[in-house]
Amino acid sequence: MSGALRNVDLVIPGSTWDQNCDDVLTYHVNAAYMSDEWQGNERFECLSNVCTVQYFERTSRISSADVKQQRRF
User: Fold this and answer.
1) What is the pLDDT of residues 50-67, one digit of tens each?
2) pLDDT greater at residue 8 or residue 49
3) What angle do CA 62, 63, 64 make, to 5 degrees?
4) Do residues 58 and 34 lie in contact, with contact meaning Cβ atoms separated by under 8 Å?
Protein backbone atom coordinates (compact mmCIF):
# COMPACT_ATOMS: atom_id res chain seq x y z
CA MET A 1 0.00 0.00 0.00
CA SER A 2 1.47 3.35 -0.92
CA GLY A 3 0.44 6.71 0.42
CA ALA A 4 1.31 10.36 0.55
CA LEU A 5 4.31 10.17 2.89
CA ARG A 6 7.42 10.91 0.85
CA ASN A 7 9.79 9.15 3.27
CA VAL A 8 7.72 5.97 3.46
CA ASP A 9 8.16 3.37 0.73
CA LEU A 10 5.55 0.90 1.91
CA VAL A 11 2.88 0.59 4.56
CA ILE A 12 1.86 -2.95 5.40
CA PRO A 13 -1.57 -3.18 7.01
CA GLY A 14 -1.60 -5.59 9.90
CA SER A 15 -4.39 -8.02 10.53
CA THR A 16 -2.65 -10.23 13.11
CA TRP A 17 0.31 -9.80 15.45
CA ASP A 18 1.86 -12.99 14.12
CA GLN A 19 2.41 -11.59 10.64
CA ASN A 20 5.10 -9.06 11.63
CA CYS A 21 8.24 -11.16 11.01
CA ASP A 22 6.75 -12.81 7.91
CA ASP A 23 5.93 -9.39 6.44
CA VAL A 24 9.44 -8.09 7.12
CA LEU A 25 10.92 -11.06 5.27
CA THR A 26 8.34 -11.13 2.45
CA TYR A 27 8.59 -7.42 1.64
CA HIS A 28 12.36 -7.13 2.34
CA VAL A 29 11.80 -4.49 5.02
CA ASN A 30 15.04 -2.99 6.31
CA ALA A 31 13.54 -0.84 9.08
CA ALA A 32 10.35 -0.84 11.13
CA TYR A 33 9.11 2.22 13.00
CA MET A 34 6.52 2.48 15.74
CA SER A 35 5.74 4.63 18.75
CA ASP A 36 7.73 4.12 21.92
CA GLU A 37 4.69 2.80 23.77
CA TRP A 38 5.54 -0.53 22.05
CA GLN A 39 9.20 -0.55 23.14
CA GLY A 40 9.98 -3.73 25.04
CA ASN A 41 6.91 -5.51 23.69
CA GLU A 42 7.91 -8.94 22.37
CA ARG A 43 5.60 -8.50 19.36
CA PHE A 44 7.99 -5.89 17.98
CA GLU A 45 11.26 -6.65 19.73
CA CYS A 46 11.46 -9.93 17.81
CA LEU A 47 11.73 -7.87 14.61
CA SER A 48 15.22 -6.75 15.64
CA ASN A 49 16.42 -10.20 14.55
CA VAL A 50 15.41 -9.47 10.94
CA CYS A 51 15.51 -5.65 10.53
CA THR A 52 16.29 -2.39 12.29
CA VAL A 53 13.60 -1.41 14.80
CA GLN A 54 13.22 2.28 15.62
CA TYR A 55 10.86 3.75 18.18
CA PHE A 56 9.69 7.36 18.11
CA GLU A 57 8.18 9.43 20.86
CA ARG A 58 4.42 9.14 20.91
CA THR A 59 2.65 12.42 20.30
CA SER A 60 0.30 13.09 23.19
CA ARG A 61 -3.34 13.86 22.44
CA ILE A 62 -3.08 12.34 18.93
CA SER A 63 -4.53 8.90 18.34
CA SER A 64 -4.60 6.98 15.06
CA ALA A 65 -7.86 5.40 16.27
CA ASP A 66 -9.37 8.88 16.61
CA VAL A 67 -8.15 9.88 13.14
CA LYS A 68 -9.59 6.69 11.62
CA GLN A 69 -12.93 7.32 13.31
CA GLN A 70 -13.05 10.95 12.13
CA ARG A 71 -12.23 9.97 8.55
CA ARG A 72 -14.27 6.77 8.72
CA PHE A 73 -11.59 4.50 7.26
Assistant:
1) 999 999 887 777 777 777
2) 49
3) 125
4) no
> Rg (Cα) of the chain, in Å, rounded?
13
Q: What are phi and psi of 26, to 5 degrees?
A: -65, -45
pLDDT of residue 1: 47
Whether 23 and 46 have beta carbons less than 8 Å apart is answered as no
User: Are the C-beta atoms of 46 and 18 separated by less than 8 Å?
Assistant: no
Residue 20: closest CA among 4, 3, 41: 41
Q: What torsion do the CA atoms of 47, 52, 56, 58 make, to the nearest 10 degrees?
A: -10
CA 25, CA 27: separation in Å to the nearest integer?
6
Alpha helix stretches (DSSP H) within 1-73? 20-26, 42-45, 64-71
